[in-house]
Design brief:
The protein has 269 residues and is α/β, with parallel strands linked by helices. Helix content is 24%, strand content 28%. It has 5 helices and 15 strands. Strands 1, 2, 3, 4, 5, 6 and 15 form a 7-stranded mixed beta sheet that branches. A 6-stranded mixed beta sheet has the order 9-10-11-12-13-14, covered by helices on one side. It has a two-stranded antiparallel sheet with strand order 7-8. A hairpin with a 5-residue loop joins strand 5 and strand 6. The longest helix has 19 residues. The chain is globular. The mean pLDDT is 97.
């Protein structure tokens, strides 16, 4: 396992209903991150499509291992020789009219090494603002992690951030990733404090890649992609718009935090 710092990047997007437009934006930003030395790149939730309606993504659902979205991710991971965590894409489910909201992970050879289907599905209603992901998405069931050169990486998506028991079930991670499309309303209230809490209580890095801006469907997402260290310090943040958040995973710093305050060893429940 490597002990030297590893550079990581989170891609922030303002995705559109057109998959090809989103491919172009993601390609540009992934390549930019790789040119700046990122060895691991995280895309946001719904990066390939933010449709005009919740049902639009169903038409783009892919079977596992086949389809243009998966091919894009495998190809660019191999081309840029990076670990690519593909935000989420719609995968076909057994329920008609519904998809799985799935994170796929590719290694630098372009091989798929991990999969996570989003477990917790968001719903929110306040005034004119209303969401219910369960109308078009099927709940996932399995906690998922994978081994990167610097340690274990835990996979989670957006609304999962509110459920700390998910992260305990991952075991000790060096990094937790959080691709998201937080609404402006809930993001403004809770996004940063929840990201920092997950980093502090799990004594690990948290890398969050968000949608961040006004979308063609009228939805406004909060943005504020960020990298948080194991002490809860925000190392980098991008408030709004398309771009990158970058920083280092520092194994020595992580181990130092855990040695000086061994909270993970003090658990009783």
């Amino acid at each position: 396992m490597v002990t030297e710092p590893v550079k990581v990047a989170a891609v922030q997007m303002v995705s559109t209903p057109k998959v090809e437009e989103n491919f172009a934006a993601a390609r540009r930003l992934i390549m930019q991150a790789a040119r700046q030395g990122a060895q691991l790149v995280l895309l946001p939730e719904y990066w390939p499509i933010m449709g005009m309606s919740e049902a639009d993504k169903v038409a783009h659902a892919e079977q596992p291992g086949a389809g243009p979205i998966q091919q894009f991710m495998a190809d660019i991971a191999r081309q840029e020789r990076i670990w690519l965590i593909g935000g989420t894409l719609p995968l076909a489910s057994a329920e008609p009219g519904k998809v799985l909201n799935t994170t796929l992970v590719y290694d630098p050879a372009g091989q798929r090494v991990s999969r996570y289907d989003k477990i917790h599905l968001f719903s929110f209603a306040k005034g004119d603002e209303s969401y219910d992901e369960a109308r078009t998405i099927v709940h996932g069931a399995e906690v998922s992690t994978f081994e990167a050169p610097f340690g274990r990486v835990g996979l989670s998506v957006c609304y999962d951030l509110r459920f700390p028991e998910l992260y305990r079930a991952m075991g000790e991670c060096a990094l937790i990733v959080m691709p998201a499309a937080f609404t402006y309303t809930t993001g403004k209230a809770h996004w940063e404090i929840l990201l920092r809490a997950r980093a502090i209580e799990n004594q690990c890095y948290v890398l969050a890649a968000a949608q961040g801006g006004k979308h063609q469907n009228g939805r406004r997402t909060w943005g504020h992609s960020m990298l948080v260290d194991p002490w809860g310090e925000v190392r980098d943040v991008l408030p709004e718009g398309e771009g990158l958040v970058m920083g280092d995973i520092e194994p020595r710093h992580l181990h130092g935090v855990r040695e000086s305050l061994p909270a993970l060893k003090h658990r009783k429940l």
